[in-house]
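Exercise (ungraded).
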Amino acid sequence: MEFVNPEGLRLDGRRPMEMRQLRAQIGAVAKADGSAVFEMGNTKVIAAVYGPREVQNRSQQINDQALVRCEYSMANFSTGDRRRKPKGDRRSTEISLVIRQAMEECILTNLMPRSQIDIYVQVLQADGGTRSACINAATLALADAGIPMRDLVTSCSAGFLNSTPLLDLNYVEDSAGGPDVTVGILPKLDKVTLLQMDAKLPIDTFENVMQLAVEGCKAIANYIREVLLENTKQLEYRRGL
Amino acid sequence: MLHSKTFNKKTRGGRIQKLVREVYLRDDIYCGALFCKSCEDKSKARLTATASTILILDTNVVLNQIDLLENPAVEDVVLLSVVLQEVKNKNSAVYGRIRNLIDSPARRFVVFSNEFHRDTYVQIMAGESPNDRNDRAIRVAARWYQSHLGEAVKVLLITNDRENKRKATEEGVSAETIESYVKSLGQPALLDLLVQPASEDVIMEEVEDMRPSKRKVVYPEHKPMSEITSGLTKGIYHQGKLRVNRYNPFEAYVGSESIGDEIVIYGRGNMNRAFDGDVVAVELLPQDQWHEEKSLSIVDEEDEEEDVHLVPGSSDDAPRTSIPVSSSTFDTNPVSSRPSGLVVGIIKRNWHSYCGSLEPMPMPAGSGGLVYALFVSKDRRIPKIRIQTRQLDNLLDKRIIVAVDSWDRQSRHPSGHYIRSIGQIGDRDTETELVLIENDIDARPFSAQVLACLPPLPWSVSSKDLNESNRVDLRHLCVFSVDPPGCKDIDDALHCTMLPTGNFEVGVHIADVTNFVHPGTPLDDEATQRGTSVYLVERRIDMLPKPLTEDICSLRADVERLAFSVIWEMTPEAEIISTKYTKSVIKSRAALSYVEAQARMDDSRLVDPVTKDLRNMNALAKIMRQRRIHRGALTLASAEVKFQIDTETHDPLDIGMYQIREANQMVEEFMLAANVSVAEKILKEFPECSLLRRHPTPTKEMLGPLLRTAAAVGLNLDVTSSKALADSLDRAVGDDPYFNKLIRIMATRCMTQAVYFCSGELSPPEFLHYGLAAPLYTHFTSPIRRYSDVIVHRLLAASIGIYKLPTIFRDRPQLTSIADNLNYRHRNAQMASRGSVELHTLIYFRNRPTDTEARIVKMRSNGFIVFVPKFGIEGPVYLTMRGDKGGGEWFVDEQQQKIRKMDGSVSYSILQAVKIHLEVLEPKPNRPKLQLTLL
């Protein structure tokens, strides 16, 4: 199938190096300590953060740092066909783990010993790149909850179809079966916290694709920073400062 | 700007699913006009400032009139992405051609992505059909162009859709049909290229006027698609590809999976307008009608007969790919119970353009006007095609190319249109070009981009090449090459030295083509496309440009050349002890021809190093060959002929069988060994993406004709394995010396051809090369003339860690498509060679009626097919006059493969030698054919 036509346009009219439209909203769940909705094109994800709070299961308590937990799930209505999916299937367990590890890396857990931070992410609408969207939403929610972090974590995916590196694959491109590289970075520290790929790519192509994904992450980081700044300004305004 | 597209789709399970897709609408899509002031990016702009009219084409115009669009008279065309998308979905061949036009720098075609442009995106309205929406999108884009470019240029929408044209005019877009546009150009020759609309009443009336007897409906109606689909699922209809018998165009076969057998279709009426290669739906006839059709097929409407042609090289070339003797319509007593059927619908057309000539016809009174003429394709499986022309006098004695447009129920012949003429009929260049076109061979000179990839000339091995760490210096070895006389593209050389241990070091050195042809370059792309060099009788069409084939890569004598070497250590018993693969530099001591090499070996007085090495190698080769035959490799024979060509006139002077010497077999043996060694190596390193060559085991059905013939002459062939077959072929020695070769030729004909494949696609047992009895095989030894070898060189270089594997090898679908293309090109190249030989045979016999001996190879009801060993041709000999139904007098004995006169006075049996007379006759002007008559 042709994913990039000879005119250099993808199926949805983007060029290979373009991302889908980003949208973000902070404070979507009033009850949570921090929450956010993050959209990348038609992929829509909600994240809620509780904590730091007392560890619920004493046996899991860690004495010199905070316990980070993460739960990923997909709403039944998130895909076109409404299907009841079992909770805790392999895929969600894996993504939960991936998100937890990525977030744990940037949370200053040693500042909050013997406490617990819960991150809940749910996919409201799936159109490819849910993993990245979840990490971005979780970052926003953590920031909203005021949890101390080293840096933001942002994530973006890139693929390689028709011999062209493509940024931010949507569902159609994702299901083409080509390589899908998901990268998560700490933009200020310029470090990688997440790198996943489940296909083979020659090393030099891989470098190009990964570089593209990193550029995407940086663009998302800029956007998230703007959103946070805007949010802070509004908070200032509300407090009458 | 963001939009989303919502549409419903039926899933495979039958449920309706709602899909939502994003559409990003852009403002950076440019109009493609060089004179446009508002669009900045001119990199893809083509429309010139001088153009007063810019054409926007509707889908139906692109789909139907592609031949016209390819004519340089049509320029400054805008293709909308909505049109391209529709074309792509409907006909991928046309899409490929239109893409070529867009890419061609000589033409002024631009693409406008109207579907992603902010101002031209059109959302489907409630109650609007997708077709109407697309038509509206075209009109919107046309309007945008007019307002964007201003009044200085005229934007013309070309559409043959009446409704679309009317709406466009209403909306203020100027629109015209393609006919009126072409007429306005004032070039009457262009009108011939126009496809006539299928259902236009005017034309049908004219036809009826011309041929009043044919007013009636000739063919039954095709069933609607929905009925076919349901019929297929219910099992009433059977789907399959229609293959027309090469010998008899009134008989066709449909290989159907649903009944596991082939369905025979007799007569044009039952074929119901299907062409060879079409995917059709077939309904079975009631069983009592299954063999009643026999007599009908030979006395059918038009009078066509068999041609003399070259002996098929394998079952792929033979008229029928599989099963019974009854393939011949001549049989009197049919093997009954073969299902026969009739075509009820055509699922997919396989129409393309055909080469041939017009049927001779008297010039109508008012010449220059519109005339209907019948076109006869060179391919006999294609029915005559009716075309319309205004230049009849011009075309009558020309070879022309014609495309098919439609076939109505009311007309006996399909209608088509003229595309272009090639040249005079009978002219050797024209006929050669015809052979090339028929086999889809690109004989154009290499483009400048391709030539730019060549290293600067004069080229010689540089110190950089010598110092390369991966390259071993083998210049001290006594390397030599053995090839056919006059060979300029020498791609293999050999050496053989005795080691102190008494073992031999044997090396096969292959031209290092991949050192010059790098992946991803235009040179490589061109070679991928061409796939192989094509050898015609009087010329060669190279896969790589001449400087590479004849100089830089060619391992000529006494010059240093780069090579890729396979070096074995062998015991005197030809056991391989070790194998080494390396890139090397060699210097060939001698470039011998087979004859020279043979003479050297035979001349016991010669004791120079080359001759000694030759003898050693020959001794080794004989052992290897013996061992291979012992393993069950088949020694098959083919009837290859060789022409002697006059250097001045290029006319054939003499013709004879190609002689195979020991020296040929020696070289062949080492090439086989090298190929096998390389196949093992690359498969070990790259089990998923190696390019190998396999030869499928022939099925029992395929060997049927061979077994029947053998049985008729009292020979018992064991075909349980290749070994058994090889042994029984060896035992098949009749009292006459040619008998064994004849049986081998017939055996060869039952086999399919070997094919390239990607190792990841099949499981290891299927890798088998039946003919060579080798579990693994590939092509490594001729990279100058075969692209498969280039790929294998890259694989081998990667497997010994010299180069990285090009990325293409990671992409299995692409690798498979390359392998398929190689098979296609390889086959076409063979067909073209055969076509060229056939052509020269005809030229040769034109002034030389000859008497010669021939062998009967197939029985027919009114004659038999003979094979002429001396010239490698095969053709029919009639015992009864044509026109005479010939039923009564002769009787065919199917069991014993004999034809007998009713009174028992004369009989002929299969494989019998007969004397025949060869002569070129011209039954119709300009249509020479070779006729065989019994003496």
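Further reading is listed at the end of the chapter. For now, observe: The mean pLDDT of chain A is 92. The CA atoms of residues 20 and 203 of chain A lie 27 Å apart.
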